[in-house]
Amino acid sequence: MALNEQFSLADAIVGQATEGPSLEGSRRRAKGLMAKATEETYTVDQVQAEIDQYTPELMSFYKDEIRSNRSSFLPKKEEYEVAELDYSDLEDDYGEDARATRPDQDYVKPRLRGDAGSLSFEDLALKVQRDSGDGQFKDKVRALADKYNITTQEIYAVINGENKDWSWNTTNKLGYKGLFQIGETPALEAGIDYASITSMTPSQQVDAYDKYLSRWSYDGSVPLAVMQAAPGKAKRLKGKPSSTVVYAVGSDAWKENPAWRSSKNGPITLGSLKNYYR
Questions:
Q1: What burial letters (b/e) apply to 122-151, b meaning 16+ CB within 10 Å?
Q2: What is the DSSP letter of 109?
Q3: Whole-model pTM?
Q4: Residue 88 has pLDDT above 90, yes or no
């Protein structure tokens, strides 16, 4: 992590704090450090000395931010060796090496500062658990990701791409149902009880989606976006560049799914599908 990125983050976290004399002082120091770090006029020793002044306050916000977003903002020691901080109470969540970057499957894009109306995938998954009373949903998603050696982020991105409301008991106007918006024909082919999808719990719908992936012999070697948009073409798309055309301009799929297109009215490509389901 670059020095100026580290202090930009420090400023963002401290800047979210409740107003107060000591926290305001920390905010000012963080902003000052940002400027000096950007100008590259501070040595590591000088940065260390400044950090010591507000470490307890800053670390409390680091910990809250890490736990709420399930992603690690802590720098790796070899990249940014300035402070020996106490990470011991993070070990229950992140193992013995609390400094290590979390695996990709645990990364959830954090909410931007001031963006109170935009929930991260992690927030939305927690909301599904709470609203449905299904406390196993996130564990089911993780198990599915582990099975196919993909990330939970990919699974959440498919849900978000298909169902912006993350509603597990909804049927759209075209007859697609549930979190993953499974249609009648794909359900029949995969041995899924189409009629009962919207009465399934979110966890049961993850199991149903696993049946869908298994029906197409998915092995995790292509992006999950391909399995959602073009499962029958997955094998020949394996290893292809992002510019590969999946659906040509004027095709039925192109007409029915304008959000999948590259540019505004370009063909639907492997890259444009990955860009949509992200």
A1: bebbeebbeebebeebbebbbebbeebebb
A2: P
A3: 0.58
A4: no
